[in-house]
Amino acid sequence: MIGAVVLGPAAFDLIFHRRQPERFLIPAGYKGWVRVEFRRKGAPPLPTEDGHLLLKLNEQAMLQTSSDPLPGHGRDDFYYYSGDRRTPLSNAGVCKGGMIWQVETMVDESTSTPFERFFVGSEDSYRREVDPSGKAPACE
Question: Residue 139 falls within a domain, yes or no?
Fold first, then answer.
């Protein structure tokens, strides 16, 4: 009973707040923060590919779209691309060799424009980016 009370809300959220998955195409070799701006007038809507929303980022790892951000969780894919070639990137998580960090949707307060951002790079480079002092424990 205690487990249902504690884990129930999280399970409910994962099951009922699913959204269409996104497929991010990131320029090959890019490392740093990615930014996708939504509800931009004059920008194209997001296309789909194999049931995923397709987000192809420019060389500065940015994208503007007239589409709305989708709430909830999806099984997103991340790839480096160069021409027609794609290399999958892992979003495995802490101490598992991932390359995608801190995926979050926010609102730019000055423009009220929603945007999504995340960091692309090794776990070490991500840790240095968010904690330059190096106080966060490293993987063992």
Answer: no
pTM reported for the whole predicted model: 0.82
Question: Which H helix or E strand runs over 126?
Answer: helix 123-130
Residue 53 lies in a domain: yes
How many folded domains does the chain comprise? 1
Contact 37, 46 (CB under 8 A): no
Contact at 8 Å (CB) between 76 and 69?
A: no
**Across the beta sheet with 32-37, what order do the strands follow?**
62-64, 32-37, 113-120, 100-108
| Position 133, amino acid | S
Q: Is the dihedral of CA 103, 31, 80, 65 positive or negative?
A: positive
29 within domain boundaries: yes
Does residue 58 carry a pLDDT above 50?
yes
